[in-house]
Amino acid sequence: MKRASTMEVKRQNRNNVYRIIYQKGKISKQEIANKLNLSLPTVAQNLTELFEKGLIYENGSFDSTGGRKAKGISCNMDAKTAIGLDITRNHISGVLVNLLGEVLYSIRTRLHFEDNRKYYEELRSLVDRIIEEGRADPYTILGIGISMPGIIGADHKTITYAPVVETTTLFEDLKGYLPYPYAIINDAKAGGFAELWHSPHAENMVYLSLSNSVGGAVLMNNELYYGDQRLSGEIGHMTLEIDGKPCYCGKKGCMDPYCNAQVLSRRTGGDLKKFFELLDKGDKDCRQEWETYLKYLSVAINNLRNCLDCEVILGGYVGSYMDSHIDELRQMVIKRSTFTTDGKFVQSCAFKFESSAVGAGLYYIDEYIKCI
Ligand SMILES: [Zn+2]
């Protein structure tokens, strides 16, 4: 038992050394020792192990006030990569991300989801394209995170509810098609995780994914909070109107039919960009639709704040247009709020590009960094 715990301390030290280099970008051996309260020989031993794994490299030197210049040490962010896929009803997006979460390559293609061999072959060839056109070293790829709308079990295999992309057997069906380990992740939770990854200031947040359906993610203490039944963040099915509009889930008055992106884009033939262009030009119908939309959204945001008291981040298709409309929304939230607020806890997403695909890839990156 004693031996196991010594091993664990060693692993934790190595992980801490790696993380401090990762966070600092460039750091000296002495500074690592100071910050982690470790002896120089211990730091040196860990650095040797990390060098041997190709995870770090010597990166120039620091100016010193006398004596030898200290060598800089940085992480080799491309030492490991992961692929993220985002499956929606009519499209697949794919990205290649590195250890920093940078997108090295991305692709989006129109492909209607079908639970058949042809679809899975297309998926496989998309993965091949990502590897080839993204110039990924196949040995660096940790795995493929697959984002899709649905309730996904803790094993990242079991799908218990998926009315948008109709499959509960995706994991089994993909067996034999993909060249790497793969895991299934809820799309909004993946999007929220990508947002958290790229917003180092925030520890707690609710992420609202305002796409063709409304999803969400609750992130507490820098981790996804799943809930007892993996149902946390299903914000689209919070009741906003008793016996209101029908929702695709079969119930009435859920947030989804009031706040999904199609509520807006159906005014402009399915073109959300055009909706916001017309809105900005002062189109009366778009303005009226927008005000109704914001009314329901502000109710949901007020409820979320009363429940969780943290930042509420607006992502998804609508979230990516929110920057120039955030003040209007904040004013509506302030009016509704019981507790004093300047509304700043409501924010548009910082990470606007393929967040679900990126978050799905980050699942493998996060698991890897935890185990270094
Ligand atoms: Zn519903």
UniProtKB/TrEMBL annotation:
Signal peptide: none annotated. Keywords: Carbohydrate metabolism, Xylose metabolism. SUPFAM superfamilies: Actin-like ATPase domain, Winged helix' DNA-binding domain. InterPro entries: ATPase_NBD, ROK, WH-like_DNA-bd_sf, WH_DNA-bd_sf. It comes from the Bacteria. One of its GO terms (biological process) is D-xylose metabolic process. Gene3D superfamilies: 3.30.420.40, Winged helix-like DNA-binding domain superfamily/Winged helix DNA-binding domain. PANTHER family: BIFUNCTIONAL UDP-N-ACETYLGLUCOSAMINE 2-EPIMERASE_N-ACETYLMANNOSAMINE KINASE, ROK (REPRESSOR, ORF, KINASE) FAMILY. Transcriptional repressor of xylose-utilizing enzymes. Belongs to the ROK (NagC/XylR) family. This is ROK family transcriptional regulator. It comes from Wansuia hejianensis. The lineage of its organism: Bacteria, Bacillati, Bacillota, Clostridia, Lachnospirales.
